Amino acid sequence: MSEILVLYYSRHGATAELARQLARGIEQLEGMQARLRSAAPVSPTPEAVEPPVPDSGAPYARLEDLQECAGLALGSPTRFGNMAAPLKYFLDSTSALWLQGALVGKPAAVFTSTASMHGGQETTLTSMMLPLLHHGMLLVGLPYSETALHTTRSGGTPYGASHLAGPDSDLPLSEEEKQLARALGTRLARVTRAQLDAGLIKA
């Protein structure tokens, strides 16, 4: 089985649910498996260290997860139109992988959730793309051949999967949001499989 890392930070659970939907889409392709990992919260005290395994949810990500996986789906709630600090903190620790070119040619996709319809979904998605481009990854989005992009009244963008969580972060994923997240996962898996089959990346 070839693995795609689904790495996310989630405060209230909405981004985590999107991650699970992407994982379902990835695993619809035979021979592909999702590896769910989360970003550890950032402490206001720099010396504080989180335990290696959280009380609930996916295990915290390690640099080895990026190295070992053939592709990446990266997710975060929006923070003032940008990715959340814990995810940025983790990405800032990947300089050694950049120096090795460890992620060059690996496909990647992004996903997000926001409290309001115009709360920065697209800018958050593009903010997550920038470090991936520096790593030489191949970005995968959602084409308009996905009909749910034309009918959604909540989340869903050509830049990546998204979710409208509402002001209390308690809205469930709509059917279109689920469909688009799974479609993005499957598309990412197909592109990753093509790169593997061509011998351009290693599992």
Shape descriptor reads globular
Structural class: alpha/beta
Reported for the largest beta sheet, the result is:
7 strands, mixed
The number of helical runs is 7
Tell me what the structure shows.
This protein is α/β, with parallel strands linked by helices. The protein has 7 helices and 7 strands, in the order E-H-E-H-E-E-H-H-E-H-E-H-E-H. It has helices at 14-26, 63-68, 85-92, 95-100, 121-134, 148-151, 175-197, and strands spanning 2-8, 32-38, 71-79, 82-83, 107-114, 138-139, 161-164. Strands 1, 2, 3, 4, 5, 6 and 7 form a 7-stranded mixed β-sheet that branches. Strand 5 (107-114), helix 5 and strand 6 (138-139) form a beta-alpha-beta unit. The chain is globular and about 40 Å long.
Please give a quick description of this structure.
Helix content is 36%, strand content 19%. By secondary structure, it is α/β, with parallel strands linked by helices.
Which descriptors would you attach to this protein?
seven-stranded mixed sheet, 7 strands, 36% helix, alpha/beta
Secondary structure elements and their pairing?
Elements: E1 2-8, H1 14-26, E2 32-38, H2 63-68, E3 71-79, E4 82-83, H3 85-92, H4 95-100, E5 107-114, H5 121-134, E6 138-139, H6 148-151, E7 161-164, H7 175-197
Parallel strand pairs: 1-2, 1-3, 3-5, 5-6, 5-7
Antiparallel strand pairs: 3-4
Helix pairs in contact: 1-7
